[in-house]
Design goal:
Layout lengths: L9 H21 L5 H8 L7 H10 L3 E3 L5 E3 L1 H7 L4 H11 L15 E7 L10 E7 L9 E4 L29 E13 L4 E7 L4 E7 L3 H4 L5 H16 L9 E5 L6 E5 L5 H7 L7 H20 L12 E3 L5 E3 L4 H4 L23 H4 L7 H17 L10 H4 L6 H9 L11 H11 L20
Antiparallel strand pairs: 1-2, 3-4, 5-6, 6-7, 7-8, 8-10, 9-10, 11-12
Length: about 450
């Protein structure tokens, strides 16, 4: 498929790749961080294509190297290019690597104008800047909505309320002919460590959907091969799509074969973290907390029956539909980034806040961690929903924190969150058996009866 851009030339990309190299050298000279995530955050707004594309180009042709802590440095070849040597070779390799994204040589090109770009790495030295002449295409006004990308890495930023602007100018946006016309992407409705969720529309049916772009996944886990990340990501998305249950987020579509992978899901409205914060640390009403607890338990029970565990339970991954029903999403991201400990690579957690919900066996990365690890995470959520706080080793039981919390939940919570896996419920079947044994009067119906709200959320 032809993905060439009439407004991006080889000279443009060559200048921007050289701009990145010069910034890396200047950072090293000044003792600033050259960690991939920091460099990407600082420089991505100043380049025309996805930053990851420049990163993979510079690594492939050995202009940069990266250590185990994701710190970047120039190689001898990179130093020579920065000094002004071998620029013809450099430009030729740019043309080879980016051939599908560049304007053909025999077509009229949009003029590029050299501008002085000041870029600072804000993490360590916000007041030190590097001035480098970089060709920049003229800025174009942003569209009101953006089609999703179909193919190779390219910049598809929509400026919303100034977000995505460079030096006060609107960021470049994708052309409708280059995108996936099945969907239209609107304003962002949420974000996380790996990407951003947008409200969207499935055009042929006119239905509302949500679109999650995983734009930062390769920057976080750059010590893995891009192809390996894509393979794992696609496998996990397809596995979640097979689980059709009222308590599991429905995956409608995915595309991992683009520079910025995305998935299309049912449109949901807010997450459990937001609801907990709205209570001011007091916890949710007990009936609501128990209903969410049961919805998550049945959802994960269904996923486990199909061989799918979550292993990253946290409030941000508990979403709500338009009627206030809880749904669990983002299965398997921990498996996308698992590292072979034999290679001596560091383990990375997606958001430090999730550590509180991880079972001990997940923290040490036991290979046989299974259903009991998800039981642990939901147990921590139960306590937080009831009390507004995450439990510690000597925390009071839920009924000791609030008098309207049933004391029957104390032992269930305690057994769900035991550090020793053999002392914990092995799965949700065992937990639900004891739950309905404790609430035998039918306060929460009977085993197998899932309570769903049908009152629209206002």
């Amino acid at each position: 498929m032809n993905t060439q851009r009439a407004d991006i030339t080889r000279d443009t990309v060559s200048g921007e790749a050289l701009f990145i190299l010069k910034n890396l050298r200047e950072n090293g000279r000044l003792g600033r961080s050259n960690k991939l995530a920091d460099v990407k955050t600082a420089l991505e707004p100043a380049v025309s294509l996805e930053f990851d594309a420049y990163f993979f180009f510079l690594r492939k042709f050995h202009y940069i190297a990266m250590d185990r802590e994701a710190q970047l440095r120039l190689t001898d070849t990179g130093e020579r290019v920065v000094e002004g040597n071998e620029l013809d070779r450099f430009s030729g390799e740019v043309g080879e690597f980016f051939s599908e994204q560049l304007a053909p040589a025999d077509e009229p090109l949009v003029s590029s104008y050299p501008v002085e770009v000041e870029t600072a790495v804000p993490a360590l030295e916000p007041h030190v800047t590097v001035e480098t002449a970089v060709p920049q295409p003229p800025a174009a006004p942003p569209p009101s909505n953006t089609p999703l990308p179909r193919a190779a890495p390219r910049r598809t930023t929509t400026a919303v309320d100034g977000v995505g602007a460079v030096d006060g100018r609107p960021a470049p946006s994708s052309k409708p002919g280059d995108g996936d016309l099945r969907y239209t992407k609107f304003d962002a409705i949420g974000s996380g460590p790996l990407g951003t969720v947008y409200k969207g529309r499935q055009n042929s049916l006119g239905t509302e959907v949500s679109v999650k772009e995983l734009k930062d996944i390769f920057g976080y886990f750059s010590f893995l091969q891009r192809s390996d990340v894509v393979k794992r990501l696609k496998a996990e998305l397809c596995a979640q799509a097979q689980v059709r249950h009222p308590g599991v987020v429905t995956i409608l579509d995915q595309n991992t074969d683009v520079g910025r992978p995305y998935l299309v899901m049912e449109l949901l409205r807010g997450n459990l973290r937001e609801r907990l914060e709205q209570t001011g640390g007091k916890g949710l009403p007990v009936p609501l907390a128990v209903r969410i607890f049961l919805q998550l338990s049945y959802a994960l029970r269904a996923a486990h029956a199909q061989g799918l565990t979550h292993q990253n339970i946290k409030p941000e991954n508990v979403l709500f539909d338009g009627y206030g029903n809880a749904k669990i999403g983002d299965f398997g991201l921990s498996r996308v980034i698992e590292i072979d400990s034999g290679k001596g690579m560091p383990q990375v957690y997606v958001g430090t806040g999730s550590l509180s919900y991880l079972a001990p066996e997940l923290i040490v990365k036991a290979k046989d961690a299974g259903a009991a690890a998800d039981v642990y995470g939901v147990g921590i959520l139960l306590y937080e929903m009831l009390t507004g706080a995450i439990p510690g080793r000597r925390s009071p039981l839920p009924s000791e924190v609030r008098t309207d919390a049933p004391s029957k939940l104390d032992l269930i919570f305690d057994k769900m969150t035991h550090d020793r896996r053999e002392a914990r419920y092995p799965d949700f079947d065992a937990m639900l058996e004891e739950f309905y044994g404790a609430f035998s009067e039918g306060e929460y119906l009977g085993r197998g009866d899932l309570v769903l709200s049908s009152e629209p959320v206002r």
